């Protein structure tokens, strides 16, 4: 980490992009370096710390320093997407490594693990995160290399106790990786709870404006696996572009205020629709009725986030119809942006999806809570 201002609060560091005023021009906005390659001097020595942008580059390094600082990690690496970051991590696993991951997690990340398992690159066991003992039972001392947690988990927002999972992983000699996409640093710092690696789809909250795809890995320690992760990124080329890194830096400057507002509005929506005659259930960790509420209250210290799901009273057609009738919520996949999105999740996962037919996933943006609630009311009425 390179910031000299680490005594400041994370929201201050985020708002000022670590406070790096451009020394040449005095510009208060970080410069965008788009160079793919970096020159040498008369002695053929590199002028700066970078050689070639597949390996490292100034704007990427700046984005990485911000994420590492906010997560309290020893370093961060940006990738072209969240899944590119996840694939780089799995690439560092030993051949045949045993991996324990949740039954309910980001669909495509689990599809990647299943694919690796089918090809015998690793062996995979899935635990039920509503019952943490199932994780403990599956971890094999000396055999398990990676325990994976996603919390709150797509799209039911089940909450996993990160400290419990860290204990279970470490007691077996495994590392704990946490997908913190839906619980970014304003609310959860997984490393402080025992995580070894944190993943973000920076496409979502970190950037927050639905205008790029990016992924980040953050490490607790600058160890051999971390060196290997950098090597994998360099050798497979899944790096982020300079412009996307610059947009990501810009997005992260408002992360704390966005997340606070999104959490507040999501809670208002969840409370409004809990017990609503056309709603069979509301899944949101901020509701006392949510099974993960107690743990969420402990490890999500800056709000319960902007993601919730509504189980519509009816069948698959009722639910799909609601998703087509909203006028403020945009019917689209993804999450964490300034505009609210609604999605019939079952329709976008594969035919084997275990998501309830009647589940609508909501990503709450920055619109007024009144408009969002009124929009869902009229969509539910039909
Ligand atoms: C979107 C998402 C990912 C994948 O990230 P991409 O940037 O789309 O590749 C992984 N995990 C979670 C929880 C996500 O929401």
TrEMBL record:
Q: Which SUPFAM superfamilies match?
A: PLP-dependent transferases
N6-(pyridoxal phosphate)lysine: residues carrying this PTM: 204
Record's keyword terms, sorted: Pyridoxal phosphate, Transferase
The cofactor required is: pyridoxal 5'-phosphate
In its UniProt record, a GO molecular function of this protein is: carbon-sulfur lyase activity
Which Gene Ontology terms of cellular component type are present?
cytoplasm
InterPro entries xref list: Cys/Met-Metab_PyrdxlP-dep_enz, Cys_met_metab_PP, PyrdxlP-dep_Trfase, PyrdxlP-dep_Trfase_major, PyrdxlP-dep_Trfase_small
Q: Which GO terms describe its biological process?
A: transsulfuration
Q: Which domain of life is it from?
A: Bacteria
Kindly indicate whether the keyword Aminoacyl-tRNA synthetase belongs to this entry: no
Which family does the UniProt entry place this protein in? Belongs to the trans-sulfuration enzymes family.
Protein name, entry field: PLP-dependent transferase
Q: Which organism is it from?
A: Microbaculum marinisediminis
């Amino acid at each position: 980490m390179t910031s000299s201002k680490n005594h400041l609060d994370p929201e201050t560091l985020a708002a000022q992009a670590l406070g790096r005023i451009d020394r040449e021009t005095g510009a208060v906005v970080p410069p965008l370096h788009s160079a793919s390659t970096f020159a040498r001097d008369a002695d053929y020595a590199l002028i700066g710390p970078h050689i070639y942008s597949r390996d490292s580059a100034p704007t990427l390094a700046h984005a990485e320093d911000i994420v590492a600082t906010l997560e309290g990690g020893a370093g961060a690496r940006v990738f072209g997407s969240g899944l590119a970051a996840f694939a780089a991590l799995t690439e560092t696993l030993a051949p045949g490594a045993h991996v324990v991951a949740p039954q309910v997690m980001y669909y495509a990340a689990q599809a990647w693990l299943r694919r690796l398992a089918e090809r015998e690159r690793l062996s995979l066991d899935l635990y039920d995160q509503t019952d943490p003992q199932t994780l403990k039972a599956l971890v094999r001392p000396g055999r398990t290399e990676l325990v994976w947690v996603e919390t709150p988990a797509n799209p039911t927002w089940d909450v996993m106790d990160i400290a419990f999972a860290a204990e279970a992983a470490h007691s077996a000699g495994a590392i704990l990786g946490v997908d913190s996409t839906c619980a970014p640093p304003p609310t959860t710092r997984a490393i402080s709870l025992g995580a070894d690696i944190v993943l973000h789809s920076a496409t979502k909250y970190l950037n927050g404006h639905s205008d790029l795809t990016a992924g980040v890995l953050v490490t607790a320690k600058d160890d051999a696996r971390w060196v290997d992760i950098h090597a994998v990124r360099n050798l497979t080329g899944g790096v982020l572009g300079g412009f996307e890194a610059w947009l990501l830096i810009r997005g992260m400057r408002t992360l704390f205020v966005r997340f606070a507002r999104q959490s507040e509005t999501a809670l208002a929506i969840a409370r409004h629709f809990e017990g609503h005659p056309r709603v069979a259930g509301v899944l949101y960790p901020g509701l006392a009725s949510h099974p993960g509420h107690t743990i969420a209250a402990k490890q999500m210290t800056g709000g319960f986030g902007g993601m919730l799901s509504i189980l519509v009273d009816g069948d698959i057609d009722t639910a799909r119809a609601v998703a087509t009738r909203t006028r403020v919520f945009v019917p689209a996949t993804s999450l964490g942006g300034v505009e609210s999105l609604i999605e019939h999740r079952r329709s976008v996962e594969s035919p084997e999806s275990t998501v309830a037919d009647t589940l609508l996933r909501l990503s709450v943006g920055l619109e007024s809570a009144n408009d969002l609630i009124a929009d869902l009311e009229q969509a539910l009425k039909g």
